[in-house]
Amino acid sequence: MGVEGIGARVLRKEDKRFITGKGRYTDDFKMAGMHYAAFVRSPHAHAKIRGIDKSAAEAMPGVVGVLDGKQLTGDGIGNLICGWMIHSKDGSPMNMGAWSAIATEHVRYVGDAAAVVVADTLENARAAAEAVVIDYEELPHVIRAVDALKDGAPQLHPEAKGNLIYDWEIGEKDATEQAIAGAAHVTEMEIVNNRLSPNPMEPRAALANYDEADDHFTLYTTSQNPHVARLVLSAFYQVAPEHKLRVIAPDVGGGFGSKIYIYPEEIVCLWASKRLGVPVKWTSDRTEAFLTDAHGRDHVSKARIGFDKDGKIVGFSIDTIANIGAYMSLFSSSVPTYLYATLLSGQYNIANIHCNVRTVYTNTAPVDAYRGAGRPEATYLVERIMETAAREMGMDPAELRRRNFVSEFPHQTPVIMCYDAGDYNATLDAALKAADYANIGKRKEEAKARGKLRGIGLSCYIEACGIAPSAAVGSLGAGVGLWESGEIRVNPVGTVEILTGSHSHGQGHETTFAQLVNERFGLPVDNVQVIHGDTDKVQFGMGTYGSRSGAVGMSALVKALDKVEAKAKKIAAHLMEADEGDIVIEDGEVKVAGTDRKLGWHEVCLAAYTGHNLPQGMEPGLKETAFYDPTNFTFPAGTYVCEVEVDPETGKTEVIQFVAADDFGVIVNPMIVEGQVHGGITQGIGQALLENVIYDDNGQLLTASYMDYAMPRADDVPSYKLSTHETVCPGNPMGMKGCGEAGAIGSPPALINAITDAIGNNNLTMPATPARVWALINGK
Amino acid sequence: MDLNGEEFIPAPRERVWEMLNDPEILRQCIPGCETLEQAEPDQFSAEVVLKIGPVKARFNGEVFIKDKNFPDGYRIEGEGKGGIAGFASGGADVILKEQEDGTLLEYRVDANVGGKIAQLGSRLITSTSKKLAGQFFGKFSELAAQAQTA
């Protein structure tokens, strides 16, 4: 490992601009003649639009347009799509209702766009939006998924009878039921995974311009995947053909999944800019973000797990109801199915698993992938029920897990996934040691003497990253392939530009991708520029989500670097009259092995571009492109241990220690990986202790500001104890697994298991607010 | 949101009844009420400016009086639209009980809010409603006492 190569703690190149206020986000861009959009949003959970009176708004200062859904559809703008087809167990395709970027006849959740005002200033746009009078006829509404399935529940979409989108299953039902029926012990739980708001620091924004001279659109937007945005905007929404649309996702301040999707606002800004002849900008305010950013989680599950007399799992049955909100967001259908139920085997060797998922419409904001996307829901369920089962059987929860660990690889689970590599005992051992698990009894006694309840909880998570082999996801219903592309442009002076289809919105690609070039050629990372997030610069890419930029994005770069290296070696061999096989590239030099003959890297690059003396028939230049399609998911795994102290007088939980032992495969930059784990665990602690999206019975969002939606703060969390254990992933050239989501996936069950241990009651629902914990302690 | 309470009014029950049916008295008593006009018997249109937490809005609405039972009480219902601030709707059952030197007015309020008021002000609605009720009855008692001395 060099000082800037794979495994080095290189400081992040991008942080200089981020911490000096020089980052350039969508809202920082301005255009001549730019106008501002303000959306008129439904205050009702469900209503029919009887009429819209625009006259007062249209007469207000600076207003250039007040537009509605009928005008939008009248101009041929298509409905929003869901990019993953799920079939119900009876073989029928999912029942998807129509979603227009601006409502045409019905609004279906509080925040649904009913009209948009475009004006010369933001103030004028907002003032005029207040003057748009919409005559609503309120309709019956339904907020909770369980209620949406009841007979006589209000119907949201004519396409989805009984609000049911699909009734899907995975695994063998009869075999699982038989196995559980014959079990020596069965643990049953109802497990709720609470609804979350993603809360990236930068709210969503869009700036669209139609250039009449070129008949061409430009869209600046807060996207994790600008090429997918361009594809969907052109192919499905008919906003503009792909070659007439440039999508730029500049610096993006966090996404956590919520910026994968194409939302109504981007569509509307593009459409309005052409219709009104002005550039149109929209920037979400924080309450709009709470209302309209796709939410995460919101599952209610009933689970039963059976063990034989030795504590070996014999069968695991899960029945889940997933709330998808009022409309199907871009990847919403895949989250409670293939990204969730395929991980229900956990780290365990389970012969029989069956999971049934019913996904339903409700009058709430759309729900889609949020950091972890389905895997947190699976992990929470598996690890809560494992811990509870151990307590019921009077076993050490660590020992019960150990008895059931998968220990031979590859391991085919009964729910599609084939685990390729791992060492679950190693991460469990490391975590238990770091947490001083053996002496928890003493610490509980000591806390008891002070009147406090101390508890410890485990979570042995596994997740699937690097999504994913295109043919595999295609066969499961995905509308896209999930490969990645990369281009290496070596300049005549030897500096390198990396063009990647991955997108960095906090991940540090400008540093880690440069480290890869350093590892290969010994060039300083300062000589490497990473270019991403612009469809005019990067040919195509699938973007960043599912912890895929390392395992998939960097693998594409490895393939492109292989080609660059091969060509550079040919040129060098020709110039030095040596055998191509004897050429090595290291420390910025191109050498003939075993001799003192060498050329500077820049000399070889210059030779490639002068073309004065190249091997016979070789094209000039040094630029290579590669597309990489992964062969399997990757499977990061590890053990998290959380220790808490609960004050029985108030029900307040203090997180005393949090230990993480992760296996991410090969690590490029340990500092960045630690940052990802810190952020992930903190988000998980947020879900477990604080965060909760609450709609009241009327469908009003009560948690629409930071006064009511509790985010974790520095004083809510301890300093984490982290370690990593490396098993090399055999599925990609670098042996990487991915680390972006593990913290958020693995941490909630560890924390809840710790609290339930402390209070001696397993029946706790997230978030574990003081009121809830106090009520359980006091039997209320 | 539900809010129950009672208020002693220093006036005879018939006088309190009259006042409760007098648009001008109601206009003076409803906090932030700018206009209250009788459209039909037992129906008024009103314009009220309200501030709930960070949200200030002008509500245009209709007020109806129902279930009149002279002089024991009535139900008053209203529905107001506050533009982008959202909407409010609700009602109050009012019961008048004769007492030695005045009238005991009992009320049971039920109200719903939506839109920005719910999103930003939901924590404050109960406390704001209590404050508004206090202001209403404070003024109502004051006017009743004035009427007695006049």
Description of the structure:
The complex is a heterodimer of chains A (780) and B (150). Chain A is α+β, with helices and mostly antiparallel strands and 780 residues long. Chain A folds into three domains: 15-20 and 483-628, Aldehyde oxidase/xanthine dehydrogenase, molybdopterin binding domain (Aldehyde Oxidoreductase, domain 4, 2-Layer Sandwich), CATH 3.30.365; 31-139 and 201-254 and 259-292, Aldehyde oxidase/xanthine dehydrogenase, a/b hammerhead (Aldehyde Oxidoreductase, domain 3, Alpha-Beta Complex), CATH 3.90.1170.50; 299-468 and 632-777, Aldehyde oxidase/xanthine dehydrogenase, molybdopterin binding domain (Aldehyde Oxidoreductase, domain 4). Chain A has a seven-stranded mixed sheet with strand order 3-5-1-12-9-10-11, sandwiched between helices. A five-stranded mixed sheet of chain A has the order 7-15-14-13-8, with helices on both faces. Chain B is of the alpha+beta class and 150 residues long. Chain B has one domain: START domain (Alpha-D-Glucose-1,6-Bisphosphate, Chain A, domain 4, 2-Layer Sandwich). Chain B is built from four helices and seven strands. In chain B, strands 1-7-6-5-4-3-2 form a seven-stranded antiparallel sheet. In chain B, α2 crosses α4 (125-149). Chain B is globular. The interface between A and B is medium-sized, with 20 and 14 residues.
What is the strand content of chain B? over 45%
Distance between the termini of chain A: 58 Å
The count of helical stretches of chain B stands at 4
> What is the H/E order of chain B?
EHHEEEEEEHH
For this structure, the quaternary state is heterodimer
Number of strands of chain B: 7
Average pLDDT over all residues of chain A: 97
Cα end-to-end separation of chain B: 38 Å
Mean pLDDT of chain B: 88
Residues in helices of chain B, as a percent range: 25-40%
Percent strand of chain A equals: 15-25%
Structural class of chain A: alpha+beta
| CATH first level of chain B | Alpha Beta
Number of helices of chain A: 20
